[in-house]
């Protein structure tokens, strides 16, 4: 599947994350853990923000100048209803160029839909968009080797890919960042999240 195919699937599913049955605390405790590593509140972005607005709400409550990005037209339409004054980017993360540096980047359950050959470039793009001392939290498949698959989601076709933990940590190091936390937070499911921090004073 191409990113535009994933977007079409999410267009048809957008109301699920906007509804009352969606668990709005999903990922929030992990974000609070990530925020604890940050000593200031500046610019933030939610990559693959979806329609729920829950991560945006958290970032706004923490005092961030917050933006959001998603490839799904319908997801963004619902997200804009919740936050009409927010800056939204309607874009494919593979093609998007960050307009500046961010102090906090969230990519929760989103960039694992990026094609395998774009996984590492996208991660490096996000890490390189961090300001010194900035934090990125993101999810991936907790695998040792690269793997991708097509798995339906609520009856809609869906693609996911994971470069593998060694490749993730290599990208972290190459971009002048440090892994502050790595956890299988839904074990035995292979749902992995990482908290990565840009070094304030890179060595060398």
From TrEMBL:
Coiled-coil spans in chain: none
Keywords of this protein's UniProt record, alphabetized? Methyltransferase, Transferase
InterPro entries from the UniProt entry? Methyltransf_25, SAM-dependent_MTases_sf
Superkingdom assignment: Bacteria
One Gene Ontology term of the biological-process aspect is:
methylation
Which PANTHER family does the record cross-reference, listed alphabetically? TRANS-ACONITATE 2-METHYLTRANSFERASE, TRANS-ACONITATE 2-METHYLTRANSFERASE-RELATED
Annotated Gene3D superfamilies? Vaccinia Virus protein VP39
Question: Has the keyword Methyltransferase been applied to this entry?
Answer: yes
Q: Name one GO molecular function term.
A: methyltransferase activity
Q: Which residues form the Methyltransferase domain?
A: 45-134
* Membrane listed as a keyword: no
Name assigned to this protein: Methyltransferase type 11
């Amino acid at each position: 599947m191409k990113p535009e195919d994933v977007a079409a699937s999410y267009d048809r599913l957008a109301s699920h994350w906007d509804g009352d049955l969606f668990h709005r605390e999903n990922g929030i405790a992990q974000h609070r853990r990530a925020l604890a590593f940050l000593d200031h509140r500046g610019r933030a972005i939610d990559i693959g923000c979806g329609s729920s607005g829950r991560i945006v709400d958290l970032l706004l409550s923490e005092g961030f100048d917050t933006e959001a990005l998603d490839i799904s037209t319908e997801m963004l339409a619902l997200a804009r209803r919740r936050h009409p004054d927010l800056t939204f980017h309607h874009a494919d993360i593979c093609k998007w160029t960050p307009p500046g540096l961010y102090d906090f980047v969230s990519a929760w359950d989103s960039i694992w839909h990026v094609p395998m050959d774009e996984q590492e470039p996208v991660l490096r793009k996000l890490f390189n968009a961090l300001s010194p001392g900035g934090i990125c939290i993101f999810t991936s498949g907790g695998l040792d080797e690269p793997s991708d698959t097509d798995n339906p989601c609520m009856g809609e076709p869906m693609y996911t890919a994971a470069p593998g933990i060694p490749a993730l940590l290599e990208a972290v190091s190459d971009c002048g960042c440090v892994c502050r936390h790595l956890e299988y937070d839904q074990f035995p499911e292979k749902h992995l999240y990482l908290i990565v921090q840009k070094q304030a004073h890179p060595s060398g």
